[in-house]
Amino acid sequence: MVRAVFLHIPKTAGTSLRETLCRGLGEDAVSPAFGASEMTEAEADALRRYSVVFGHISVTDARRFFPDAMLLTAVRDPTERCLSWYRFVRSVGVPPYPDVMAALSHDIDDFFSLDVETVFRNIYNRQVRQLGDHVLNTNVDMQDTFERAKATLDECVWIGRQEAMQEDLTRLADVLPEMAGVNLSRLNVTAGDHAGRPVSDELRRKIARYNEFDEALYADVVRRCGG
Question: Which residues, if any, are the signal sequence (predicted)?
């Protein structure tokens, strides 16, 4: 029976969190990670053997297929998340979605100057869209979706912040007692992630233009977590 669904937003320490959950709950209790899709009944059935469903699942699918499960998620500063996603794609390559192909063929400044349609899937307010709608829905009212994303946060029994993950992880035992005393052993860093290189203010402004709603949602999470 599914106890919890972890709404894994890309580049929010998901690999590390899944490994940590496996150490606390057992390898067989946590589903393999999976990508964003419009989930089918057959796919949902295959996941019902796990105690925790962990993947890039949108809240609409989580509520449809696992209505009685607790919701958990983690968020990240939107600009840092987008920078990490770009470096990840450049480092390892992933499926040929428009934003992926654009990242592989454009340098960082040019990529974050592209139109919203090109970068929509993983860059444009991805956190709000995954928590407030279905991430593959391209006909989305962002203000309504933002309000629904905040409502999702109200429902979540645990919210982590990548920037304070070890601290936030101590609260996880409140809802999953098996996690008591289980520490985050490492914070996964993308190979080739040149996070130490300076990022210009202009580039940060470019990224922020794609993430007005994500910025507001992240600020809301920081307030909820007491700063």
Answer: none
Query: In 3D, which of 170, 171, 150, 154 has the Cα closest to residue 70?
Result: 154
Assign 7 to helix, strand or coil. strand
pTM, to two decimals: 0.94
- Condensed to tens digits (0 to 9), the pLDDT of residues 195-218 reads 556 899 999 999 999 999 999 999
* Secondary-structure breakdown of the chain: helix, strand, coil percentages, each rounded to the nearest 5: 50, 10, 40
Give the list of residues 6+ apart from residue 182 with CB closer than 8 angstroms, or none.
20, 23, 24, 169, 173
pLDDT of residue 189: 59
Phi, psi of 165 (to 5 degrees): -65, -40
- Alpha carbons within 13 angstroms on the beta-carbon side of residue 160 total 29
Domain edges within the chain = 4-224
Helices (H), 14-65: 14-25, 41-47, 59-65
Q: How far is residue 53 CA from its own chain's centroid? A: 14
